[in-house]
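// run 5 | inverse folding | seed 20
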């Protein structure tokens, strides 16, 4: 599978995540900025914009 001529980078983890953990609303708003949602399907179809991810990660490093 390729996108724009590049193969995806995939990592497998065997970490077990806790269930029931909730993210604070203020933090979730920050992460929502990384997503571009479809106007037709809404929350089910998102595009993750790498430039927005860099902005969010830089914000996390400063906090």
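// decoded
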């Amino acid at each position: 599978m390729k996108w724009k001529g590049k193969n995806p980078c995939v990592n497998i983890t065997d970490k077990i995540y806790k269930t029931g953990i909730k993210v604070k609303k203020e933090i979730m708003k920050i992460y929502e900025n990384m997503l571009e949602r479809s106007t037709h399907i809404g929350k089910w179809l998102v595009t993750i914009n790498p430039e927005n991810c860099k902005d969010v990660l830089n914000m996390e490093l400063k906090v």
